[in-house]
Amino acid sequence: MPRFAAKDYRRTGRIYNMVKDLDGALALARQTTTAMPSTALCADIHRMLTAAGLGGEDQAALMEYFKGPDKERF
């Protein structure tokens, strides 16, 4: 959270890498019939960000993405 508040978007982890990790967690959840609705939603958001061309950005970039089109990003 301190990095989000300071708008520090240095890359420490890429969004597309998080998609891979979330998909792995969801695959295990399916195998064990474990409901993980919040994880599924998080994975969908990260897929959307990747589709918007932000897959190579840091996780913190999602804070800027959701400001909306009328706000300055990055």
Q: Keyphrases for this structure?
A:
74 residues; N-(1-d-carboxylethyl)-l-norvaline Dehydrogenase, domain 2; mainly alpha; elongated
Write the layout of secondary structure elements.
Blueprint: H1 2-5, H2 15-31, H3 37-54, H4 61-65
Report on this model:
The chain starts with a helix and ends in a 9-residue tail after the last helix. Helix 2 runs antiparallel to helix 3 (37-54). It has helices at residues 2-5, 15-31, 37-54, 61-65. It is mainly α and 74 residues long. It has one domain (2-65): N-(1-d-carboxylethyl)-l-norvaline Dehydrogenase, domain 2.
Net shape? elongated
What is the β-strand count?
Answer: 0
Quaternary structure type: single chain
Helix content: 55-70%
Q: Could you name the CATH class?
A: Mainly Alpha
**Level-2 CATH architecture:** Orthogonal Bundle
The major sheet is characterized as: none
Structural class given helices, strands, pairing?
mainly alpha
CATH fold-level assignment = N-(1-d-carboxylethyl)-l-norvaline Dehydrogenase, domain 2
Output mean pLDDT: 85
CATH superfamily: N-(1-d-carboxylethyl)-l-norvaline Dehydrogenase, domain 2
Number of domains: 1
Beta content comes to under 5%
How many angstroms separate the termini? 17 Å
Low-confidence segments, given as residue ranges, are: none
Cα gyration radius (Å): 14 Å
How many helices? The count is: 4
SSE succession: HHHH
